[in-house]
Amino acid sequence: MLAVDAGDAAGPLLSHIPFLLAGDGGVVHAHLVLSNPIARCLAKGERPAVLAASGPDGYVSPDWYEAGNDLVPTWNYVAVHLRGRLRLRPEETLRPHLDALAAQFEHRLLPKPPWRTSKVPDRQLQAMMRAILPIELVVESVDGTWKLNQNRADEARLNAARHLETGGIGVETARLAGMMRKPPEPA
Length: 187
Description:
Blueprint: E1 2-5, E2 12-15, E3 20-22, E4 27-33, H1 37-42, E5 47-60, E6 74-88, H2 94-107, H3 122-130, E7 132-147, H4 154-167, E8 170-171, H5 173-181
Antiparallel strand pairs: 1-2, 1-5, 3-4, 4-7, 5-6, 5-8, 6-7
């Protein structure tokens, strides 16, 4: 999710967008439809912004710890926040961006033959591209956060991971369970 300070009483603007990390991760490439309020805001110049990327997450029932009745439910998650300056990119960067974005996601669908922008008639593709703007976030700081029951005893955390993997509620619960088995060391 992209959040931009609009600089007015309306408060921050939010948009859920697909994106690509460029090069060393210091720049994020994305695009917005012209009618998006963030796109209109960028017409006035670059803005401070935050891109929140969510990883696996899921509900953890206190019963899953198998460690007594004095516990409460929780939500485990992994997230990264990229902060920086959001700005428009040159129009000629849009087609290569769309090709790279499609390639990133189509690769995950293999062995399905990949979809490519070249499959769209040129006139239709040009009309679509006139309705969107390429943007970039120049990353100034990165904040990662996670809650993986690292505050629980190993046995309780591993029990919860086992239950989450076999019947959890959330996104990528098997991956989350794997991360719970070996949470990162605090920095």
